[in-house]
Specification:
The chain is an alpha/beta fold. It has three domains: 127 residues, Rossmann fold (3-Layer(aba) Sandwich); 161 residues, P-loop containing nucleotide triphosphate hydrolases (Rossmann fold); 119 residues, Helicase, Ruva Protein, domain 3, CATH 1.10.8.60. The chain is 48% helix and 14% strand. The strands form four sheets. The protein has a five-stranded parallel β-sheet, with helices on both faces. It has a five-stranded parallel β-sheet with strand order 7-8-11-6-12. Helix 2 packs parallel to helix 3, helix 13 packs across helix 15 and helix 18 crosses helix 19. 31% of the residues are buried. Pfam families: AAA_lid_14 (PF25601), Response_reg (PF00072), Sigma54_activat (PF00158).
């Protein structure tokens, strides 16, 4: 049974969700953002319904931290009618949808069913590929920078630590999987962990070291450590900037004390580690904690952002289009002008942003062709491409004509409303 977390400070809202969803899903409740973070840290959650406005940590801040802890967690924002703007802003930050109070029972049921069905399809697809022995992970691109990364991956031998450095949204987890696949531990489990600044050192110690029964007054259950769960496998740690130095030293020493116990245990786990940063190649982690950087950078791989390897962008676009056509049983194509606009965009969110957009375009396309006017307006505006300029010119002409018609062909009033003089207006009509 899949697990849904409801995060709302109002008891009545939590009870409403319970009445709607209980019996169909494993339901968890949290009255605050802080409690939600602890819940998602302690156990696997498939979907969260998250209130936008809560005392203390609000929904937007909670969303950001939940996605840092578990990027695969699906989140639906819950909002009042007068707060839809914040909910739609949250969708840009990683929420998959939003629901407006008071609830439409069928809307909630449909959202949960659709979102969780999609997760199941993705999971089943991955399992089918594994069973068929197909290569799940491959580098996309033909730029020299990607070829250099491929050569570095091939050269890695043994179980030395690896540090992957790249901006948010670059292919860090993909590369970690490639390293794991070619290692002697390929038949064992790779586990990914996204650290979050929201987690205290004590919470991280519980996560990494585990705990014995009765070691905590908050939770009396025994809990395995990450080292137990990945024994003989690979642990990929993302957002290494948030790793306390004392835990890094434990990893280096290959022994730890479980919380509530003084017994030492060996930790024979290969650790592939990355840091997320914006700016210089290694400046963020090196400046924040030189000791952690030095230990984990035995092998250092720097992943360039998409804007520095523009020849790879069309290849990623086609890869994602093929992937989501297959997933949703569609045959959507990109118009050449739309492909040009997407190729000219600088993708500040890198591959994650690109893949998310292509998935949305495939899902929402009602025909068989994605045109420039199907793309987000702000994206088209930023590219400055010829195809984008043509589209913007058409948009501008249509808008001017619409205002002109609303004003009953009164040129003086139209020019005034548009903030232009009558001579400029004449050129646009």
């Amino acid at each position: 049974m899949q697990t849904i977390l409801v995060v709302d400070d109002e008891v009545s809202i939590r009870e409403s969700f319970s009445l709607i969803l209980e019996g169909q899903y494993n339901l968890l409740m949290a009255a605050s953002g802080e409690t939600a973070l602890k819940t998602v840290t302690d156990q696997k959650v498939d979907l969260a319904f998250l209130d936008v406005r809560m005392p203390g940590m609000d929904g937007i801040a909670t969303l950001k931290r939940l996605k840092e802890i578990d990027p695969n967690l699906e989140v639906v924002m819950v909002t009042a009618v007068n707060d839809v703007k914040n909910a739609s802003e949250a969708v840009k930050l990683g929420a998959c949808d939003y629901a407006v109070k008071p609830f439409d029972v069928q809307r909630i049921l449909k959202l949960a069913e659709q979102i969780l069905r999609k997760k199941n399809i993705l999971k089943e697809g991955d399992l089918a590929k594994q069973k068929a022995g197909r290569d799940l992970f491959r580098l996309i691109g033909n730029s020299e920078k990607i070829k250099t990364i491929a050569r570095t991956i091939e050269s890695i031998e043994g179980d030395e630590p690896v540090l992957l450095v790249g901006e948010h949204g670059t292919e860090k987890e993909l590369i970690a999987n490639l390293i794991h696949q070619k290692s002697s531990r390929a038949k064992t489990k790779l586990q990914s962990l996204n650290l979050s600044p929201a987690l205290s050192t004590q919470q991280l110690k519980s996560l990494f070291y585990g705990r014995t029964s009765g070691s905590s007054t908050v939770d009396l259950r025994a809990k395995n450590s990450l080292f137990d769960e990945t024994k003989g496998g690979t642990l990929f740690i993302n957002n290494l900037e948030s790793l306390p130095e004392e835990i890094a030293k434990v990893i280096a020493a290959k022994e730890f004390s479980r919380l509530g116990s003084n017994r030492q245990a060996a930790t024979p786990v290969k650790v592939n580690i990355t840091t997320r940063f914006i700016g210089g190649a290694t400046q963020s982690l090196a400046e924040k904690n030189q000791a952690i950087f030095n230990f984990f950078s035995t092998v250092l791989i720097q992943i360039p952002p998409l804007r520095e390897r523009t020849s790879d962008i069309p290849l990623w676009i086609n890869h994602c289009l093929e992937k989501y056509n297959q997933l949703y049983a569609k045959k959507i194509k990109l118009a050449p002008a739309a492909l040009q606009v997407l190729s000219d965009y600088d993708w500040p969110g890198n591959v994650d942003e690109l893949e998310g957009l292509i998935e949305r375009l495939v899902l929402t396309c009602s025909g068989f062709l994605i045109e420039v006017n199907d793309l987000p307006f702000e994206l088209v505006l930023k590219t400055g491409s010829e195809a984008g300029k043509d589209y913007l010119s058409l948009f501008e002409a249509a808008y001017v004509q619409k205002v002109f018609n609303i004003n009953k062909q009164d040129k003086q009033k139209t020019a005034s409303d548009l903030g232009i003089n009558h001579l400029v207006l004449e050129t646009k009509l």
